[in-house]
Design a protein that fits this description.
Blueprint (H helix, E strand, L loop, with lengths): L7 H10 L58 E3 L5 E3 L7 E7 L7 H15 L5 E7 L7 H10 L8 E4 L3 H10 L4 E3 L7 E3 L2 E5 L5 E6 L3 H15 L2
Parallel strand pairs: 3-4, 4-5
Antiparallel strand pairs: 1-2, 3-8, 6-7, 8-9
Amino acid sequence: MRLTQFLPLCFSVLFFACGDGNLITRENNDLPDYYRRHAQDPKTGEYLIDSLGFPGNHPTDPVTGKIDPQPVRDWQFVDQLNRPVSNKDFLGKVHVAEFFFTSCPTICPRVKGQMLRLEAEFGDHPDFALLSFTVDPKRDTPEKMKAYAEKLGITDMDRWRFVHGDKFEIYELDQDYMSIAEENAAAPGGFDHSGYIVLLDREGRVRSYASGLDEEEVNYLMKDIELLLNN
């Protein structure tokens, strides 16, 4: 599993993440910094930032050294109503994304609780949206995800899209979203996934993320959402 493997690259960015966990860094335009806040393991205190080094994410420009968030790669799948959905549908919108599976016996219900908080807080804003990618597309058919969404009480199926796609494409895509998703027979439910909630700006760039298991981190994420919606 890739989680918490601190590569040499990580040490070059630790000064953004360590120290005061409540420190808020800003870019010149006062929008959330790419290194705004890093999900932290509450037991070990380690910052789970290894995914920053994977292809598709270039935290800093190699020449200038300045923060240089990149858009996620193009993707096109279907949603819980079996409608086509792609990353281009969310350009111009501030949106959050997560990776889950409907039969998850451990962290998914807690993460969904935080996603529901975000929907309740920002759901009336026309430029806000939510994405949930299944990491178990074999079992999580669009029909099953629709029933799952309805069970959660979600009524706006346009604002919150549950995404079904090719398993291997989803597993590649999660790297762009700085998340973790992979099969693991030894893990509860058969999958490893990070429980991150990732925030993207109107250009489809990752700007901030939080552990969906940590209400305080999500509180910081909500401040970032407000900043992006108001700029």
